[in-house]
Amino acid sequence: MTTLPPTAEPARSGLVVLAVDDEAPALDEISYLLGRDPRVGEVRTAANATAALAALQPDADGPVPDAVLLDIAMPGWDGIDLARMLSGLPHRPAVAFLSAHDDRAVDAYEIGAVDYLLKPVRPARLAEAVGRLCAARDRADEGREPAAAAPSTATTNGGGTGRPVPADDRGATIAVDLAGTTTLVPRSAVCWAEAQGDYARLQMAGGASHLLRTPLSVLQEEWEPAGFVRVHRSYLVALDRIVELRSGEGGHRIRVTGQARPADLPVSRRHLRELKERLLAGRRPGRRTGP
Asked: What spans are recorded as compositionally biased (Low complexity) (predicted)?
């Protein structure tokens, strides 16, 4: 690969966009419209969140997409779930959403979306969104430090690219085995993790659970910067899922939301002080009231 001298300004290629929609006709239409925009250099497609995550990995074919245009309503992980997972990627793409309804716009902008388009999408409106995606790509390029300047202590992921990942982004997506298939699940959907020997059982929002081949102590080290707290030798809990801390004859317990019924988990005396400090310093009990 030819390396430009430090004073040279690298040529900027067209925007690489990944369009994600589970409806084939809608995906074909948005891909066609994107392909007609001269600012777009390449359009890729994915029919679900799993395929999109695979296409966004640094070891996938071709350059990593600069931008993702996401449908909100998809089976399995929806567009909002996928956008949250993207925060853990070393090369985070700009995100814009597509939806037939406007009821998720607040959620979209809270997680950093650059635009929110209503279906059916007008070409002129899509052109505005492409402009915002290009601007976001340019800002990211200007703020991205060369890999050589990264601290040697930074933890990296992403196929050995060497790009630094902030501590609170490590493990933002988790690989779990489901019926012989490896699937990525978002850490943000984990309510708590329970120790099971050298494994950890992840209890997810909505009621699902996954057995992870990782000791709870390792998860604690990696996930504490991302808002998890050890409350017991057997439990690591997401702070923003805790809605109540109470004491009784049997000791202290917490109420954890996210599943069909709130869970009641024990708090050991050893971890009580840190739990109280984390709750007071960060998200307080009662902030999250549902899944």
From this structure: 147-156
Q: Does domain 171-281 have CATH number 3.30.70.100?
A: no
Q: Which CATH superfamily is domain 15-144 in?
A: Response regulator (3.40.50.2300)
Kind and range of the H or E element at 68? strand 67-71
- Alpha-carbon distance of 35 to 68, in angstroms, equals 14
Q: E strands along 100-225, which residues?
A: 115-118, 155-156, 164-165, 173-178, 181-186, 190-196, 199-204, 209-212
DSSP label at residue 41:
E
First to last CA, the chain: 48
User: Residues of CATH 2.40.50.1020 domain(s) within the chain?
Assistant: 171-281
DSSP count for the chain of H helices, then E strands: 7, 17
Query: Mean pLDDT for each 10-residue chunk of the chain (291 residues)?
Result: 42 84 94 96 92 78 88 87 78 90 83 89 93 89 46 31 37 71 81 91 86 90 92 94 87 88 92 89 46 43
Q: 224-234 burial by CB neighbour count: b if 16+ within 10 A, else e?
A: bebbbbbbbeb
Residue 247 host element (H or E): strand 242-248
Quote the DSSP letter at residue 168: G
Place of tokens 């990296």: 156
